[in-house]
Amino acid sequence: MQLGLPIILTVTLLLAALFLALYFLFITNKKKEELIAKYSNIISVNEEVARLQQSATEIRQSCETLSTKYKQALITYNEIEDLIAINKETTDLYDYGLYEPRFDFETSQEYKDRILENHKKQKMAITSDTAAVCIGQWSINGDTSEGTKLVNKYKKLMMFAFNGECDSLIAKVKWHNFAQTELKIQNAFFTINRLGRVQNTSIQDSYLELKYEELALYYEYERKKYEEKEEQRRVREQMREEEKARMEYEKAKREAAEEERRYQKALEKAMSDLGKADQKDLDELNEKIALLEQNLKNAHDKKERAISMAQLTRAGHIYVISNIGSFGEGVYKIGMTRRLEPMDRVRELGDASVPFRFDVHAIIFSEDAPQLEYNIHKAFAGRRVNMTNHRREFFKVGLDEIEEYIKTNYKDDVEFIPLAEAKEYRETLSLMNRVTVEKSSDEPVFAFPEDLFDEDLI
């Protein structure tokens, strides 16, 4: 019994210790859970921050990769856009600008001679082996002579391609595509040289400049030929106009002379009848003689005027006319005619070339009509409707300005008609308005009722 008591006591103590240990473990886990529950939000935020930082790093790396690819794609896109713009036929002067002449030759033959000189320079560059060069020395199986032959063949191929492309482009250059053609030549130059990098071979810039010069020369040569053709056409038209005027003068002179002879003969007969007439018919014969004398004088003056006009080779009329229906208000044609009747020329201009007839504001006779016309055109040169073709004699200028210039620099007794009748145009507008009104009257018109509770609507 004495031995059993210590064992029981020991077991009891061990059980008590185990219980305490389990109790403290339970309390510790519970507190841990409470702490975790208490600070779970903080733990989640930290984990989210770490996750987001990792995501941001990954996104930044992806953006850098995409940015690099985008820049490369943008470069390619811009290159394609440039190629499309170069090869697209367009007349957009805002994008490509007006051509500024590089040469100032008087005749097309001078341009032709300069083009031949340019071709000689190109041939000299090719024969002297300075048009295309190869950097370094090539050899085939250790044989430099074979390498040189290969390079020379490659240079010939490059020159053949470049010259062929340039010849094709230069032959098709027009007023609206000069800048594009120049860019196409430049693009061909860079493309062929890019292909020649494998052999370290390239066409020289000096040869490219010769091609630019050939392009400019050829373009200006064609334009000069056009200007010369237009000038020849103007001269032929002027000669035809002068021939018409001469024929009119001759016809008017013949008719006036015939009329003068007829009145002279009638006057002589009336004078012979005067001596045989009695007192009753005397007054009637005197009136008839007075009328015949006046008609004879008018016929004589008409003949003398026709002779005078035929002798004055530079005499003519300056006309100021408008056509509101065709060109709008404030646009006037200022031209010259040598016709005996200037209105014949005005009627010709309005017969078929425009939809409405011209209105005449002034007709001015001048003994030196070409000089007067030149002076007026020069005074209003900056107001031309067509700044490139001076045969088109239309000016956007006020009629009062034209009148002031004529009366200040020529003579002040010229009569100007300020109002443009534009009869056909205004009648056309009236008819169009009438048709529009009739058409609209046929269509049903919705009218709001006077009373919202109209019986017809209920």
Task: Kindly state the number of beta strands.
Answer: 6
Described by the principal axes of the CA atoms, the overall outline is elongated
Structural Rg: 50 Å
Q: pLDDT below 50 for ≥5 consecutive residues: which ranges? A: 89-97, 452-458
- Helical percentage: 55-70%
Strand order of the largest sheet: 5-3-4-6
- Kindly estimate the percentage of residues that lie in beta strands according to DSSP: 5-15%
Calculate the mean pLDDT score and round it.
Answer: 78
Alpha plus pi helix count: 13
Structural class given helices, strands, pairing?
A: alpha+beta
Major β-sheet profile: 4 strands, antiparallel
Sum this structure up briefly.
Helices cover 68% and strands 7% of the residues.
Plain-language structure description:
This protein has 458 residues and is an alpha+beta fold. Among the domains are: 27-81; 108-227; 316-426, no CATH class. It is 68% helix and 7% strand. It is built from 13 helices and 6 strands. It has helices at 4-38, 40-87, 93-96, 108-127, 144-171, 178-195, 205-276, 279-311, 324-327, 342-349, 369-379, 399-409, 423-442; strands spanning 132-134, 201-203, 316-322, 331-337, 359-366, 394-396. It has a 4-stranded antiparallel sheet. The radius of gyration is 50 Å and the shape is elongated. Mean pLDDT is 78; it is low at 89-97 and 452-458.
